[in-house]
Design brief:
The structure holds two protein chains of two kinds. Chain A is of the alpha/beta class. Chain A contains five helices and five strands; from the N terminus they run E-H-E-H-E-H-E-H-E-H. Chain A has a five-stranded parallel β-sheet, sandwiched between helices. The chains are: A alpha/beta, B alpha/beta. The complex binds cobalamin (B12), guanosine-5'-triphosphate and magnesium ion. Cobalamin binds next to helix 1, strand 3, strand 4 and helix 5 of chain A.
Chain lengths: ~130, ~170
């Protein structure tokens, strides 16, 4: 019998940002694309997000930020994932992220950053094409 | 893969998380690992939390967990939510109401989708309970899917089952 692997995603809102429409929309869209999505809710610390990724054995961590905290939180999440030995987790982000910040986030280990108006099927395709071990 | 059992017994959270995935996927290569874990089970007290959707199961789980943590007990939580019968995907939202516990590294919370199983649990939930038990959790709390009238599968797995009802 073959293993019934499903893509598991943690969708998280780091920091005090209350804009959760994008994160909730994507959580639902990813579920409709056949993924198992854990939505953590608002006000997550990097430690909480990484602990969730560890316990849930996540393939993907999605970070949504619309309040300008991405330059601290996104790299910190990547760093903590590595500390915990979670090297294979794909980290993707989105929200209000100025173009000039994207190169730095990618350098820090964020695989991709998607801004307002991105088609959700584009995000799903990126995840399916880039997760490891599938 | 054999190392995984040894690592779980030594207390590796990462190994437990990965073993749970293998069992959840009903990976045939991993089934024999359960046999190796079995002698180490039987120590955890298993609490089932069930009831209609939205009655406060996750909130209660979080509260009970924090009381147990105050008593220096270790806790594993399994939170089950339904898979979509159309897409096979699932939105697992119980963690939102478990904020207090999710900041505590001694509390291991695992969200699970039913993957088509009826009765309020996934087919492999009882095995995941055993894994957390073997790992050494003093308590394992299982939150079922929000159930209707006759989903009582949890009562077979749990030592005590709590049914949460909304007043009125
Ligand atoms: C709706 C909204 C609100 C609502 C939020 C409701 C809610 N529960 O979410 C309310 C009215 C509450 C609100 C409040 C505020 N807001 Co407001 N808000 C918006 C607005 C108009 C739309 C955001 C939205 O919901 N878009 C729809 C969703 C679906 O899109 P999205 O989140 O961008 O997601 C898409 C992509 O970004 C991407 N994506 C997003 N997250 C992720 C994650 C991953 C993993 C991936 C892969 C992709 C991805 O994919 C999605 C699909 O394409 C934006 C302006 C704008 N046009 O973006 C301002 C905006 C975000 N708000 C802003 C501000 C300043 C505020 C306030 C501080 C205002 C104030 N002074 O009180 C407060 C703060 C509230 C808080 N607690 O944080 C600013 C932020 C400025 C900045 N970051 O520099 C913006 C940009 C407006 C502006 N131009 O000034 N806001
Ligand atoms: N007034 C009141 N609200 C509560 C109580 N317990 C939970 N809630 C609220 O009820 C809503 C649902 O709570 P959850 O704990 O998510 O309920 P649940 O049974 O786990 O829900 P599902 O897993 O979706 O079936 C939340 O908004 C809680 O804050 C309570 O004792 N009193
Ligand atoms: Mg719940």
């Amino acid at each position: 019998m073959t293993a019934k692997k499903r893509i598991k995603v943690i969708m998280a809102k780091p920091g005090l940002d209350g804009h959760d429409r994008g994160a909730k929309l994507l959580a639902r869209v990813f579920a409709e694309a056949g993924m198992e999505v854990v939505y953590t809710g608002l006000r997550q610390t990097p430690e909480m997000i990484v602990e969730a990724a560890l316990q849930e054995d996540a393939d993907v961590v999605g970070l949504s930020s619309l309040s300008g905290v991405h330059n601290y939180f996104f790299p910190r999440v990547v760093e903590l994932l590595k500390e915990k030995g979670l090297h294979d987790v794909l980290v993707v982000g989105g929200g209000i992220i100025p173009d000039e910040d994207i190169a730095g986030l990618k350098k820090a280990g964020v695989a991709a950053v998607f801004g307002p108006g991105t088609r959700t099927d584009e995000i799903i395709k990126f995840i399916k094409d880039n997760i490891s071990g599938s | 893969m054999d190392d995984l059992v040894a690592e779980v017994l030594q207390g590796s959270v990462r190994a437990m998380a990965r073993l749970i995935t293998l069992i959840e996927n009903e990976d045939s290569r991993a089934l024999y690992l359960m046999a190796a874990l079995y002698p180490h089970t039987g120590n955890a007290y298993v609490l089932g939390i069930t009831g209609s959707p939205g009655t406060g199961k996750s909130t209660l789980t979080d509260k009970i967990t924090s009381v147990l943590r105050d008593r220096e007990q270790t806790v594993g939580v399994i939170a089950v939510d339904p898979s979509s019968p159309f897409t096979g995907g699932a939105l697992l939202g119980d963690r939102i109401r478990m904020q207090r516990s999710s900041g505590d590294a001694e509390v291991f919370i695992r969200s699970m989708a039913t993957r088509g199983n009826l009765g309020g649990l996934a087919r492999t939930t009882a095995d995941i309970v055993k894994i957390m038990d073997a790992f050494g959790k003093d308590w394992v709390i299982v939150e079922t899917v929000g159930v209707g009238q006759d989903e009582v599968e949890i009562a077979k797995t749990a030592d005590t089952t709590i049914v949460v009802l909304a007043p009125g």
